[in-house]
Amino acid sequence: MKEVSGSLVDHVLTIKLSGHIDSVNAADVEKEITALREENPSQSVVLDCDALEYISSAGLRVILRLKRTAGELTLINVQPEVYDVLEMTGFTEMMEVRKAYRVLSVDGCDIIGQGANGRVYRIDPDTIVKVYYSPDSLEEIQRERELARTAFVLGVPTAIPYDVVRIEGGGYGSVYELLNADSFAELLIKGKKTVDEVAAMSISLLKIIHGTVVKPGIMPDMRRTALHWADYLQDYLPEEKYQKLHDLIAAVPQDMHMMHGDYHIKNIMLQNGESLLIDMDTLCCGHPIFELASMFNAYCGFSELDNSVSRAFLGIPHETAVELWHKSLKLYLDGADDTKVREVEEKAQIIGYTRIMRRGIRRGGFETEEGRAEIENCRNHLTDLLSRVDTLLF
Prior knowledge:
By secondary structure, the protein is of the alpha/beta class. The chain has 3 domains: 4-100, Transcription Regulator spoIIAA, CATH 3.30.750; 104-177, Phosphorylase Kinase, domain 1 (2-Layer Sandwich); 182-386, Aminoglycoside 3'-phosphotransferase, Chain: A, domain 2 (Alpha-Beta Complex). The protein is built from 14 helices and 16 strands. The protein has helices spanning 26-39, 57-70, 80-88, 91-94, 138-153, 184-189, 195-210, 222-232, 239-250, 288-299, 308-313, 318-332, 338-362, 369-386; strands spanning 4-9, 12-21, 44-55, 73-78, 96-99, 103-104, 110-114, 118-124, 127-132, 161-167, 172-177, 182-183, 258-259, 268-271, 274-277, 284-285. The longest helix is centred in the last third of the chain and has 25 residues, at 338-362. It starts with a strand and ends in an 8-residue tail after the last helix.
């Protein structure tokens, strides 16, 4: 019958339901499902409800009986109207039920942000969507939504995703409602704010983030990540330099204060005078030196050899990005003198160049002239800095 069809792949029987299932045809639907199961012995059953428009109580009883005999049963691509029925009747508590996602196109949309895991597009004046690079990113999206919710509950101003969508052409995205908001990068580009104003707003929000304590295990420990970066370079640095790098990072005490992990002007929005964080998949905890290292890379490190990277990545000239970094660091250190600011900058650079060097090697940097130059530049900086810096703390 047209309401039921099935296929078996890797011991999973997927049965597609369509149209209406009610008292008129429920018995026939159940017979078709039973026949498919007999013809295709499986370890689990998936009901694909993408084309299912309506289900009555008679249809629900078919699913309930299937659950009792199939053991592992999952419903996927459930349309909103059907999902509401399943939720209201308690089926979502008895089995895994995955809601269908609306399809969204980002063709022609402006890119307002870009990070390690995805790009952020402006769909309209009120809405942005973060599109993940990985085509199978639902678990990643759920993790970021949980991190964003945690930060919001703890009092950090964050943009909260309200919908998950499928992206036309493949992949998934998270949708945020940001009414007429501009990223800090857009504020600079459009001349709405000066570098001094953006630096002040940025650091004000950053201190709120860094003043927030999280419970152990909720967010990744950035020190552990940085140690992995350092250990990756063991074969690419002189032994004594690698050992000192490792020891400096290991000596940083555990710190449960929140960090954003990828803090720069494209990941902060201004809405009605309030600064809001976006792109929350990098949330972590640790000593602020790790956050400052990430900021140094965003504003200076990644574009050090090729200044055009600043405009491509942040939308601003390299000179403006460097100015923003220095003014932000001084503000973060409460106006410390230049000697102190330089000392902290060098500590941040050690982590920053470690990350860039590792990234370059992992991306096949030795195979290109530009890649080799970047790796050698980082190695030279690290060799110099590690000969002078004896602690990452400040």
